[in-house]
Write a structure and sequence with these properties.
This protein is an alpha+beta fold and 245 residues long. The protein has a single domain, classed as 4-Layer Sandwich (Glutamine Phosphoribosylpyrophosphate, subunit 1, domain 1). It is built from four helices and 16 strands. It has a five-stranded antiparallel β-sheet, covered by helices on one side. A five-stranded antiparallel β-sheet has the order 5-6-9-10-11. Strands 3-4 form a two-stranded antiparallel sheet.
Length: 245
């Protein structure tokens, strides 16, 4: 699995992800007991990509096809699509969906795809979620009914830890009643681009750190890759580099 998050604010779009690739194995102990084991294979897996210096892609869910990391397939798709009309981000999402469904239409893998495109002469943010085994492309709302930008965040993969952190919490008190703990909603509408970068790192890092202490598969880990896309440029805030350890 993975954890990926995409934030869209007035100044730009931020995509972030972890780097762990986990292998799932099954051990048969006896006739009635089967133990599933998730083993961290590497912390150098790429899950966020930049296509044509303007479209961000993050992947979550199953991270391999036929035992080969998904990253190589994504890079091949980007290369093979470079002559297509990539100003239409929804069309890009449809090609991405069809590409992977032709390889394996049952793979439980999803994507975040984000960038800018010209709509009736106006450059607008576009954020999509793509689900391969559901054969579905879902657009995330980045505008109000009046056409004004809407700021917010979308995350997928092992998302339960972050979701619990920001949701209201109640504790049981006397007479089986419940009392709400203080809760403060995140003011997405006031986020700057730097806030979006900071929150994306917080979200991935919190998931990585929290998961260490739970008796569950350690499916999130490694370096955090962060990509920023603005209307006129895209740049990596952090990105793993090949090196000699």
């Amino acid at each position: 699995m993975s954890f990926v998050i995409t934030l869209h604010v007035r100044e730009g779009i931020v995509l972030a992800s972890d780097s762990r690739l986990t292998l799932n194995t099954t051990n048969k102990q006896d006739e009635n007991t089967t133990v599933n084991v998730a083993v961290a294979s590497t912390d150098s897996n790429y899950k966020t990509f930049l296509a044509y210096d303007k479209i961000g892609i993050s992947t979550f869910g199953n991270a391999d096809i036929n035992g080969t990391p998904l990253a190589g397939y994504i890079e091949t798709f980007i290369k093979e699509s470079e002559n297509e009309d990539n100003n239409d981000i929804e069309g890009f999402c449809t090609r991405l969906l069809n590409y992977f469904r032709e390889i394996d239409d049952k793979i439980n893998t999803g994507f975040h795809v984000a960038g800018y495109q010209s709509v009736e002469g106006e450059v607008k943010q576009k954020v999509f979620r793509v689900f391969i085994n559901q054969n579905r492309v879902q657009e995330i709302n980045t505008q109000s009914n009046e056409g004004k930008p809407v700021q917010g965040a979308t995350w997928d993969g092992e998302s339960d830890i972050l979701t619990r952190l920001i949701q209201p919490v109640f504790i049981k008190v006397n007479n089986n009643n419940y009392q709400a703990l203080p809760h403060f909603s995140i003011p997405w509408q006031f986020f700057t681009l730097q806030d979006a970068v900071d929150f994306s790192v917080f979200a991935v890092r919190s998931t990585i750190e929290a998961i260490k202490f739970f008796p569950r598969a350690k499916t999130i880990g490694g370096p955090i890759d962060v990509l920023v896309i603005k209307p006129n440029e895209a740049k990596w805030i952090s990105r793993k580099e090949l090196k000699i350890n």
